[in-house]
Amino acid sequence: MFNYVKSQLGDPAQTHYLVDSDFRTVAQGWARADGTGPLDLWAHRNPGYVYRTGEYSTDIAAWNAARDAMVDFRGDVLFLPPCALSLAASTWDVPYARFMGKEYKSPKFGASPGVYNTQITITGTQTLGADAIGSEVGYVTFIPETGETSFTIAAATHNCYFHDFFWNLDGITTSASTLLFDFATTAVERWVLDQFTWLVDAPQGPVITTAIGLAFFLISNFRNVVGDTSGTYATSLLDINTGAAATEAMFVGPGIGLAGVGGGAGTVTELINSVDLTGTAGGNLVFGFYGSQNYSAATTLVTSTGDDWGIAESYVGATGPTSAALYTS
Fold it and tell me: How many CB atoms sit inside 10 A of residue 317's CB?
């Protein structure tokens, strides 16, 4: 019965393509003079849904136009062929929309190197309000500007899923204000961040900072590579600040972290920094994390003023043939 219903109803979602004209669609075969290129054929079948940046004055104008063609709650996809887009400030406001690059098989930890073929440079903060509930983003690389917050979550934007992405901070001037996600004003629940990599060659801010309570988050299968040459990366993944004491049911792991690569003298102080949380003791868990000897080297994986975090099967490496040690806090 299930298969019958599925075959009768089909998938109502529409796929929209945002094609970057910088990638020379004619010269590289996306479009052909005789109209037989894959993009031509797709456009014939789906008129009005292909957006080329050359038709708009800026990348963000093309992005907004493609996003505005998506239908709320239908699960529409904004598909990004290989591109190098530059996005000024924008508001994401399509519930349960999907923003996807080309799919690649993921390694055990982090994202595939192939996601670098779909690049988005964030030149202005992207705002996820309540209308962005259920957004899915995957198979892309985000490149920030110094001191920029890439995504501000400004409302009860629940159920979001970011996966198979690369946050590339290589060459970005150091700033503790360079953030990927900032949860600012309203409690948020049920996010998943999975299969992601972030590369740092100067101290920056963490992947997530929050001043409001978060709940039922899973942050998994991540890889952090740190080659600082001018200081210590303080908090790498998650910073739970004053006002976020209601944070609970956070699952972090598995993941790996390596500091001091490429001749750098990098160190990482902690994976997570947390205020004293109000929930049940041990109501949050780090599990299966492996760090190099310069990654939270004092065996302090989580800095917290309370007993809010449990740590299971997580190890810090040792020099030479010495066995790794358990993270003790």
Answer: 17
Cβ burial, residue 309 (10 Å; 0-12/13-18/19+): buried
Q: Is the pTM of this model over 0.85?
A: yes
Do the beta carbons of residue 63 and residue 17 sit within 8 Å?
no
The tens-digit pLDDT sequence of the chain (329 residues) is 334 344 445 577 888 878 777 665 556 667 777 877 776 776 666 655 566 666 788 899 999 999 999 999 999 999 998 889 999 999 999 999 999 999 999 999 999 999 999 999 999 999 999 999 999 999 999 999 999 999 999 899 999 999 999 999 999 999 999 999 999 888 999 999 999 999 999 999 999 999 999 999 999 999 999 987 667 899 999 999 999 999 999 999 999 999 887 666 678 999 999 999 997 778 999 999 999 888 987 778 999 887 899 999 999 988 776 678 888 88
- Secondary structure element (H or E) that encloses residue 134, with its range: none
Query: And the tokens for 315?
Result: 């190890």
Neighbours of 119 (CB within 10 A): 20
Query: Two tokens at 193?
Result: 């961040």
Structure tokens at 234: 């303080």
Two structure tokens written together for 190: 């049920």
Give the whole-angstrom CA distance, residue 256 versus residue 4: 44
Distance CA 7, CA 54 (A): 38
C-alpha torsion angle, residues 172, 270, 256, 326 (rounded to 10): 160
Q: Please count the residues of the chain.
A: 329
- Hey, which residues does 286 pair with through a beta bridge? 252, 311
Domain ranges of the chain: 12-79, 89-326
**d(Cα 37, Cα 33) in Å, to the nearest integer?**
8
Tell me the two tokens of residue 145. 């500007």
- List C-alpha distances in Å: 234 to 169, 217, 266: 15, 22, 11
- Paired tokens of 70: 């998506």
